[in-house]
Amino acid sequence: MNAPLVIAVPSKGRLQKNALAYFANAGLTVDSPGGGRNYRGRIKELPGVEIAFLSAAEIARELCEGRVHFGITGEDLVRETVRLAKSRIRFVKKLQFGHADIVVAVPEAWVDVRTMEDLNDVAAVFRSRHGRRLRVATKYWHLTQSFFAQHGIALYRIVESLGATEGAPAAGLADTIVDITSTGATLQANYLRVLDDGLVLKSQANLIYSLMAPCSAHQQQARDQLWRLLKLTGPEL
Amino acid sequence: MAMKSDLKSLMTNAGATWLELPVLHPVDPFLETAGEEIRRRLYIAEGSHGEPLALRPDFTIPTGLYHIARSGSLDPDAPDPDAPDLENPDPETPDPGTPGTDAPARYAYEGLVFRRPEPHQLSPTADGGMSSALGERREAGYEDIGDADLSGADARALAQAAAALLALGEPDLKAQMGDTGLLMAVLTALGLPEPWKRRLRHSFGSTAAIAADLEKLRTPRPEQAGEGDPDLAALGDSGDQDALRAHIADRLSEAGLSQSSGRSASEIVERFLEQKTLRGTHLAEQSMAALDEFFRLQVPLQMAPERLAGFADAHGLNITPAINQFDGRIAAIQSAGIACPITFCAAFGRPLEYYTGMVFQFTRPDGTILCGGGRYDNLLAMLGSQRPVPAVGFSLRLDRIGKPEMRNTGFAP
To answer: Cα separation of B151 and A158, whole Å?
Structure first.
């Protein structure tokens, strides 16, 4: 029995609904025999394909490791999880759902801080005034480090945020945050303001192909069929 | 290893104590001094209590910590430094002894340092993957800590570096030298506000970053303080600092933010009011020309005092104390007699906060950097010393120095 081409799809929420709708629009019906608790599924119209239902974060990791061929997940998770993304995955298509921005936000009372340059200045003197470095709470270590580095800010410390990142400043755990936001309502409710040039990444769900996953002749056939049915454009895989 | 014992005798004969320092260190001193920026380059392992330990990326910080522990000038309230394990001393490293007087000391060392290569340092392999370059290389070095005779210590460090390179089989050398103190004196004399001095200081060493800063100084930006917030703008215009502070204090407390551990209302208001002048800062054409000329200064070291005096005169800048200190160092260097040509390059700098004075490097004629060093008077205080301690030192790239068969393979140059 030939190994199927594996597509990883989000296992719950709006991301899953939208992912399934994306396939449906191309005339592809995703079945998960055995009901909601089954982590595997099939596409009725494509027998050589298997669906793996995973969390959005796991999908990013599986694509990076080459354990699935395709995946639908947020660009933010991929860029955060995958080092040297260019050599391991290819963003095949932006899917126009799951929009969210990763932003740098400071307490709104910091009326003198509107830009990354202001933040840089504040960070530079923070230690001499407060005996410690400026702290940034975030789940996005890599994205934060590269964004801050781009803006020439080195003098800060990242504090891992395990829960609601927006609550970190009020809880005394950090001074500023880098977090994901869609409407901005949560930030406002926590008295936080996004810096004018504080957009780290405009993220949305993408269909992604793994350059690390081995692809047999059979799997390539299924892949090419999928490519045609989804009417994908761009360089051939 | 033949090379190591040659170097060791050279250093110990010059009065340096040979140290065998631990490879594993708590990450904190590295992160606190260099900031988050360095974390990407650290190899981090977990200690027995789950605490993060780094494979040392350099020797300067471990040596500084050793000196602090040895001299007993630990600040009890400072962040916990890596004290040497007095129960299990390394037989080769002298027992730091009873903490006592702040005696100056010179140290030397040799060993591996570990830094994760940047993506651009990796090269694609034939099968389309990426080579995993080794993140380790062999280094040796020297630190002169606590000597109040700054010029003397600077000259000695330079002479020691040149002697070490010669002994290791590198006869054909050139050196470049810059001076952070001189840069700061020029910026002060030009009347630049503190934030701008800090920005240029941080960009020092990167021609691109300095050029970007200078471009911003050339063109003023419109005032933005209080934009979109009419209440705040009104308070700002009124100049009533008490009212402004009270307003900000209210906003901080509404957000549940403590004024004692985070930024206070005073701090925010101070900078808010400063911004009105800050955003409008731009230097007069003459001052921009002076800065441009400064960064372009490049002369043989012995001609530098005269050139600098001429530069200061031509632009009416009072930087006499900095020039005097510079001249004193040149005189000491000339007495020490260093065989290779040294060029003073005003634009040559190191961005790390703790470098304060002379910075230098030795290269082959083709430009390959073999040794880098400088004065770092701010470091020991950042590591927890109660008093500021002057320090100067250098490190030698053993992965490049000497005959190819004597080097180790290291990460990309």
So the answer is: 39
Pairing of strands A89-94, A134-138: unpaired
Contact flag A110-B198 (C-beta cutoff 8 Å): no
Q: What pLDDT score was predicted for residue A145?
A: 92
Residue B100: predicted pLDDT: 43
Q: In this predicted structure, what is the pLDDT of residue B182?
A: 94
Which amino acid type is present at position A48?
G
C-beta separation of B330 from B306 below 8 A: no
Chain A interface includes B130 (CB < 8 A): yes
Contact B37 A149 (CB under 8 A): yes
- Evaluate whether B246 touches B252 at the Cβ level (below 8 Å): no
Distance from CA of B243 to the nearest CA of A (A): 14
* Distance from C-alpha of B405 to C-alpha of B185, rounded to nearest angstrom: 46
Q: What are the phi and psi torsion angles at B286 (to 5°)?
A: -65, -40
Nearest residue to B411 (alpha-carbon basis) of B63, B20, B139, B23 = B139
**Pairwise CB contact (< 8 Å): B199 & A145:** no
Q: What is the pLDDT of residue B281?
A: 72
Counting Cα atoms < 13 Å in the Cβ hemisphere of B338 gives 29
The pTM score is 0.78
CB atoms within 10 A of CB A223: 19
Q: Positive or negative CA dihedral for B70, B72, B77, B78?
A: negative
Q: Is B297 on the interface with A (CB under 8 A)?
A: no
Task: Compute how many other C-beta atoms are within 10 angstroms of the C-beta atom of residue B122.
Answer: 17
Give the side-chain half-sphere CA count within 13 A for A39: 4
What ipTM was estimated for this complex? 0.84
Q: Residue B187 corresponds to which tokens in the numbers above?
A: 């910026």
Nearest chain B residue to A151 by CA distance is B209
Q: Which residues contact A131 (CB under 8 A, 6 or more apart)?
A: none
